[in-house]
Amino acid sequence: MVDKVLMKGNEAIAEAAIKAGCRYFFGYPITPQNALPEYMSKRLPEVGGVFLQAESEVAASNMVYGAAGAGARVLTSSSSPGISLKMEGISYIAGAELPAVIVNIMRGGPGLGGIQPSQADYFQATKGGGHGDYRLAVLAPSSVQEAVDLTIDAFDIADRYRNPVMILGDGMIGQMMEPVEFKQEIDPADLPLKEWATDGARGRKPNIINSLFLDPQKLEDHVMKLEDKYKQMKANEVRYELYKMDDAELAVVAYGTTARISISAVDMARKKGIKAGLIRPISLFPFPEKVINETAEQVVNFLTVEMSTGQMVEDVRLAVNGEKPVYFYGRTGGMVPSPEEILAEIEKIGGVKR
Amino acid sequence: MKIVAAYPESLTDKEFHYCPGCTHGIIHRLVAEVIDELGVRKDTIGVAPVGCAVLAYDYFNCDMHEASHGRAPAVATGIKRVHQDKVVFTYQGDGDLASIGTAEIVHAANRGELISTVFVNNAIYGMTGGQMAPTTLDKQKTTTSPYGRDKGLAGNPIKISEMLAVLDGPAYIARVSVHDPKHIRQAKKAIQKAFQVQLEGKGFATVEVLSSCPTNWGMSPVQALKWLAENMLDVYPLGVFKEVD
Ligand SMILES: Cc1ncc(C[n+]2csc(CCOP(=O)(O)OP(=O)(O)O)c2C)c(N)n1
Ligand code: SF4
């Protein structure tokens, strides 16, 4: 059996990246994710990797763009305002079809916002964020162990689709301590060679990493190729977890930290005789729309809970497609909903047959 | 038979899209000749800018990476950190390097990043149609300084080589020009040196190359070279600003 170690979310994600064979990190300090780059600055030199504190998030994301083009597994992390700055690089990385992993440990916004946990970057993460027709694969852990597992998977997904992948956490996931185990360890030397990478044109024609297509027909063709990848992701990469959904009449839909809290609320509701359950999207893009749509035949109501004024709820509504009412409860600005608050919402709408 | 002049292997056979008389073409050729002479074409990764040289990835016959506007030094940093045994260079205009990309160039230089930068200063934004650049001369007319650049309003021509030379990271900083054959020969030597210090692991290098933009300066190619010699050399004196043994 693998030993469990007690780790903070931010550090566990960093170690998971190393276990995934990532040896390059470029970033810029911002609360509440500082423990991640700090951990990398200590660990990467030990494994022959490179930690570089960039002059800004703009530079950091462009360093990632360079390193990813050069064929490396590479990570950057930040929190909301920093992610906004990284969007330039992210759009280019997506446009040039490069694999990279970006961690967003969300804090309250807009603007400088605050430093407490938030989920208000859902739109930015799942609907593009940067300019152009592209998507990130977005994975949202709700425990430290899951953050570890998803980080390792993120590198595989990034390589498989040659597309950036975002780990979307929040200040709570980043800072809480839980026991974790690292089930695998990848030696970067064992990773398959990326024949498209810029590593010197020896014995082959030069490789070009590029996202410029001046001919609109060529650009449309390129974008349609990207679109095909996103369709494949929708077919193959949807992840979610169901909790007490077998006989549920009310489906709470929540991700990340909010999903954890919602589990307590669901249990409290069950004790009161309300048949509540939880659908927890793990992949936010691709969004688990099918299971939500199918659940509409079973339940009476949906309640989406988020640490925002309502972002994912739009995707839930699209999935439910008007078949059942979709309610929303959210706290924002760094305020975390309590199980009691969520229970109160469940009680307000629960059991009401329509 | 000894070949004294041939088409550089480090250039592809794609025809340049540059305007007639534009000195970007000359500078491309110099860079390619240097790569050939150092014998490093298959170990070189170039980073193209956003600017008239955006398609440089089609012209240099080595691995190329097209950067976002001004970020070539950051992209090059990412590449070089992964492939420390390769030669990495950036090719950037003055809007790219001296305006939107000042943070990236200053910090790459300051880190002593082992990359070589070819910085083409034509005192204007060529690609977007002749707007004022930070390098535009005082009183120079451009499409966004139609009354002539006004120092009080728009600041002063920015002297990148002088600025970078005060940092400890760079191993070689020089300003050259390509307005006549003699200066072209000197420019090539400087570019050679900029690659050489990288190969020797000495530090960061930039060669600022004064270049012409006949199209947006509204001049014939010959007039443009004359204008460069008569107006730019005073503001941007040529020379080596930093050289580490
Ligand atoms: C982020 C961003 N801002 C602006 C532009 C538009 N743009 C393209 S090239 C350019 C200026 C290029 O000028 P310079 O670097 O001097 O190169 P030149 O064309 O003169 O060779 C600008 C502003 C862009 N492509 N991306
Ligand atoms: S616009 Fe100016 S810099 Fe650009 S190719 Fe034409 S002459 Fe050269």
TrEMBL record, chain A:
Residues of the Pyruvate flavodoxin/ferredoxin oxidoreductase pyrimidine binding domain: 15-233
Pyruvate:ferredoxin oxidoreductase core domain segment(s): 248-342
Gene3D superfamilies: 3.40.50.920, 3.40.50.970
Gene Ontology MF, one: oxidoreductase activity
Keywords: Oxidoreductase
CDD domains with a match to the protein in the record: TPP_PYR_PFOR_IOR-alpha_like
Name recorded for this polypeptide: 3-methyl-2-oxobutanoate dehydrogenase subunit VorB
Gene that encodes the chain: vorB
TrEMBL record, chain B:
UniProt GO BP: cellular respiration
Taxonomic path: Bacteria, Bacillati, Bacillota, Clostridia, Halanaerobiales
Domain Thiamine pyrophosphate enzyme TPP-binding per the UniProt entry, residue ranges: 59-209
PANTHER family for this protein: 2-OXOGLUTARATE OXIDOREDUCTASE SUBUNIT KORB-RELATED, SUBUNIT OF PYRUVATE:FLAVODOXIN OXIDOREDUCTASE
UniProt name for this protein: 2-oxoglutarate oxidoreductase
Keyword field: Oxidoreductase
Any one GO MF annotation of this record: oxidoreductase activity, acting on the aldehyde or oxo group of donors, iron-sulfur protein as acceptor
Organism: Iocasia fonsfrigidae
Domain of life: Bacteria
Family matches, as InterPro entries: 2-oxoacid:Fd_oxidoreductase, THDP-binding, TPP_enzyme_TPP-bd
